[in-house]
## 1
Amino acid sequence: MKTPSPYEEECLFCKKRILENCFASSLNFAAIYNIAPILPGHSLIIPKKHFISLIELPDDYIAEMMVFAKKATSVLKHVFECDGFDWTIQDGVSAGQTVPHLHLHIIPRKPLDLPESNEWFAKIPENEKQLIDSQHRERLSNDEYNAITSKLLLAAKCMGL
Ligand SMILES: [Zn+2]
């Protein structure tokens, strides 16, 4: 069983508000919309409990996470009418993880949404190339964020999530 870390109370993704704003959840995971999406639909799958790394997750959590992420991706596909997705985890500081709470990025993709289909990194400023988790990208307003989350919530409920 995971022991609480000293900064757990300070963790961005452990804050109660985050889980209250999720658009879908499973027993141990929640799907939330990114406040600063790289592309429309950019969402995160996070464990409800504080885990920093994928390596710390029990095997049954891994299985649940992938199944839940697949379902959340179906919701995004429906709402954002996209035909592809980037899934990425920055696991560890050297990999660009800035929020020390495990999260899987799901980034919906459409044809010609970026100059090179395999290069969504191009959306990240040169000096922040590692920071997919960047706190510096332009953020949505509360109204924009709530409107998108409401739409996702409705779609997730309609799809049985
Ligand atoms: Zn946390």
Note: The mean pLDDT is 86.
## 2
Amino acid sequence: MSSTIKLPKFCNHCGKAFIAQKTTTQFCGHPCASRAYKQRKREEKVSAEFKNQQSKIVSAAPAVISETLQAPQAGNQTNLRDKEFLSIVEVAALLGASRWTIQRMIKSKRLPVAKLGSRTIIKRTAIDNLFN
Ligand SMILES: [Zn+2]
């Protein structure tokens, strides 16, 4: 017969003291082991569901995120500096201001603009002139 060890332990599920015969035993008996197993499975399912929900929230939001990220982006700025005509959004990105600020400046005639159909374009030199 193999050496039987007697190891006083506490059940991982019900917390009851019991004598384990193996160091790896975690539960007082089969009922606790299977209950704990089911519980773990349920928790895994819940956390998987939670992650699923989170990714749904993130994927539902990109419209909002891209709207807020349209402002200063290092990669874009070098291109914007080379353009002769800019849109309101581009000017906002270039100056690190919000498009509302730019629109306010346009309304108060501090920033001259041209209309290209329904689009508002701002000449690059008009921005430079702000600093003159
Ligand atoms: Zn137990």
Note: The mean pLDDT is 84.
